[in-house]
Amino acid sequence: MSRRNKITIVGAGNVGATAAHWAAQKHLGDIVLVDIVQGVPQGKALDLAEAAPVMGFDLKIVGTNGYDETADSDVVVITAGVPRKKDPVTGKFTSRDELVEINRKIVGGVTREIASRSPNAVLICVSNPLDAMCHVMYAESGFPKERVIGMAGVLDTARYKYFISEALNVSVDDIHGMVLGGHGDTMVPLPSHTSVAGIPLTELLPQDKIDAIIQRTRGGGGEIVGLLGYSGYYAPAAASVAMVEAIVRDRKRVLPCAALLSGEYGYKDLFIGVPCVLGKGGVEKVIEMKLGDKEKGMLEISANAVRELVALLPYGKGQAT
Ligand code: APR
């Protein structure tokens, strides 16, 4: 009997459950939802499975509080953790840095459980602070670097492309470009590499409009938190599922992902958002593109921000080559 792809999603909260929904709708494989809260992964999995006759997906979808059901997964998306929240008293948001200590313990524990049961899986990290949590997953899993990938660039790029399509009133399908660097205030949008159906963006929008879009993209996560009071999840889940799809269908898509660099772009032992070819093996190639001096400078600021977070962890620190 042939076997379907198996996708585990750890954390059946907003991002995890929404990712399960879209992965099912795209028929990407059987799904296991894991969470520590009793009843939640089971309830969401059953609810989603009951949608199958309406939506027409023939998949096994299970929810659990344990890890035995996750054995031999092909891809594991880890969203477990505490999201950014707005303090009701001070009105201040939890910073990504403040999350390091809490989420490192959660993500480390989850990674050990997963790695022991699915030694060949590709791990996708969604938990924040993203770049730091990638290092936790890499260290705790012992997996080769190709199989530990962070979801940041696809989400940041999606926001960037959406804002451009909105400004020009053209289809999102025709916007090409990407956002590199770390997830957060130090991301590196590349307007000089952005086009609309091949037409350079710089010919279509004035610089002040492009700058405003870049600013909005940088603050994209915070904008949603400001409105909702908690993190967004439709776009993060969609971005995670795009990566899962590229892997399980071996599509060799070129997507911006947080990958552990070994000298590319002048960085070593640091997870940074760079263009990657994603296929069955995970990150099959890191594409090195030519960056201008300004972009290199922005990538360096971004790399420094990741280094600061990584320095809070009890693992090796990233160094520039
Ligand atoms: N094991 C399994 N699940 C856990 C664990 C754990 N040790 N600890 C927490 N969880 C679960 C929570 O019970 C919750 O259901 O992780 C889920 C997180 O879901 P939400 O709180 O809804 O957060 P979400 O918006 O989905 O964000 C998840 O992605 O974007 C990042 O910063 C965000 O790190 C956060 C993650």
From TrEMBL:
It comes from Nannocystis exedens. SUPFAM superfamilies: LDH C-terminal domain-like (SSF56327), NAD(P)-binding Rossmann-fold domains (SSF51735). The gene is mdh. It comes from the Bacteria. This is Malate dehydrogenase. Its EC number is 1.1.1.37. It catalyses: (S)-malate + NAD(+) = oxaloacetate + NADH + H(+). InterPro entries: L-lactate/malate_DH (IPR001557), Lactate/malate_DH_C (IPR022383), Lactate/malate_DH_N (IPR001236), Lactate_DH/Glyco_Ohase_4_C (IPR015955), Malate_DH_type3 (IPR011275), NAD(P)-bd_dom_sf (IPR036291). Coiled coil: none annotated. It holds the Pfam family Ldh_1_C. Residues 155-306 form the Lactate/malate dehydrogenase C-terminal domain.
